[in-house]
Known about the structure:
Blueprint: H1 3-18, H2 21-36, H3 42-45, H4 53-63, H5 73-79, H6 81-104, E1 109-110, E2 117-118, H7 130-147
Antiparallel strand pairs: 1-2
Amino acid sequence: xxxxxxxxxxxxxxxxxxxxxxxxxxxxxxxxxxxxxxxxxxxxxxxxxxxxxxxxxxxxxxxxxxxxxxxxxxxxxxxxxxxxxxxxxxxxxxxxxxxxxxxxxxxxxxxxxxxxxxxxxxxxxxxxxxxxxxxxxxxxxxxxxxxxxx
Length: 150
């Protein structure tokens, strides 16, 4: 997926799931991290270590707190900057994990080994194609229609 598609799908998913802009925004920023972290070496290392889910699951485990799922904006400000930073990093890592899942529907990603890409899910479209655009629109429409029923 392209960066714009990652941003839209991740933000929409987490906003509908949590109704929290801080969580959705943190995850949206995290959804850009795996590609942005590759920097100048993108061609030789794309979808390798930066796309290995184990790193982000480990980060989420490190930053987990029971309040991570239910905190409101007022509570975050009252608990202080360290707690807020921890919450941000938890949801940032969740966004990176969603990035990998989103990439898995348009090509191979690392699964067991960080330097060996594998087809984990069926390929639904090619990155940057009309199919990707239609997927994002359809996905968001389904989220919107189902949001009232959640």
